[in-house]
Amino acid sequence: MKKFLSTALLLWSAMAAHAHEGGITSEKGKGVKADFDIFHTKITTEGNVATFHIAVSGKAGASKPSKTGKLAGSSVFSYVWPTTIDPAVVGFEPKAGILAFAVTAHPDFDDTPLYDENGDGDPKNDGNLWHSHWVVLAPDDQCGKGALKVVDIPPGAKPRLPKTWPGFPILLDSPGWSPIFKGQTLEVKVPFDDIGVVNAAGFDGVTSALRVNASVHAPLLCIVDVFKVASGKLSLPGKVNH
After folding, report:
1. pTM attached to this predicted model
2. Residues 111-135: pLDDT tens digits?
3. 121's torsion region: left (phi>0), alpha (psi -120 to 50) or beta?
């Protein structure tokens, strides 16, 4: 029995070590809450499916924003993979900004109207559950000096948008790919028509908080607090499958 347990422990340790190979490794962050303290970020592909992976020093997904009861001024917590992939690959205008894949939770609004994540028959009350998005980011000093926002859609503009755009006046897509949380790890599997563009991409990992503008006006959704950047400087040094 002891020999069996010892062998099982060694096998588990080897599997755990393999899961955190490649990608970007990060030192423990000072003052960063454990469930947002990224220590490993990677993107790998197999066939036409990309796996977005983040590991943190605590339990991934443990914290969510407090509910305020209104959209204006409400908060969003997020795990994000900024990439060098052109936004046109997922249905936005070419070169519209920084395309990022994100897993978010926000109890005060729902931005996945096509999906009923909690299975209660109402697809419009699931924002408090972790779910996935494509977002296009760009700097806007109205969010704070050097801060990023989700790019706004000006009134009257009709930009190219993905079929699963949820109707918010920002470059946001709700494709419905399910995040999987397991202990310290978060992973999402995402299919692509052209996996080659993913294989050639650079990426980074970020944990952050965003806030809806108190006047619900452009800039609508700003990144107001960055908990951790995997590379330290958002330099997108990660290479897919490396």
Report:
1. 0.90
2. 999 998 989 999 989 999 999 999 9
3. left
